[in-house]
Amino acid sequence: MASSDSTVAFILEQVSTAGEFRAKKMFCEYGLFCGDKMVALICDDQLYVKPTDQGKTFLGECPTQSPYRGAKPCFLIAQSQWHDALWLIHLLQLTASSLPPPKKRPAKLKPNV
Questions:
Q1: Residue 32 sits in which domain range?
Q2: Is residue 108, in this structure, part of any structural domain at all?
Q3: What is the SS3 assignment for 9?
Q4: Measured in whole angstroms, how far is the alpha carbon of residue 68 from the centre of its chain?
Q5: Can you say whether the dihedral through the CA atoms of 48, 105, 16, 5 is positive or negative?
Q6: Does the residue 112 lie in any domain?
Q7: For 110, which DSSP code?
Q8: What is the pTM of this model?
Q9: Which of 7, 18, 67, 87 might form a disulfide with 43, Cβ 3.0–4.6 angstroms?
Q10: What SS3 string covers 49-68?
Q11: pLDDT tens digits, residue range 55-83?
């Protein structure tokens, strides 16, 4: 089951005051980015935040679950918590600051014509 556009729009609206978040469609689901770092996934209308030590300290007891088969477990954020925009922004920014910078992909070679 793919996530609905309204779920993605709601989460983006909640974090819009921070101005640094965007969602990217990925295989019928969405990656949530803070700047150039993917901090969360929106899958099956649920929010999965990448696990970090700082996030665990901030969240305390929080269930973890894989967003899809074969994926590493992430923090599963209850929909009731999405309504606290400042809390959500803080969690996602904390996660972004805890993650390493994304790896640079090598440039694609252009074929000689």
A1: 5-98
A2: no
A3: helix
A4: 14
A5: negative
A6: no
A7: P
A8: 0.88
A9: 67
A10: ECCCHHHHHHHCCCCEECCC
A11: 999 999 999 999 999 999 999 999 999 99
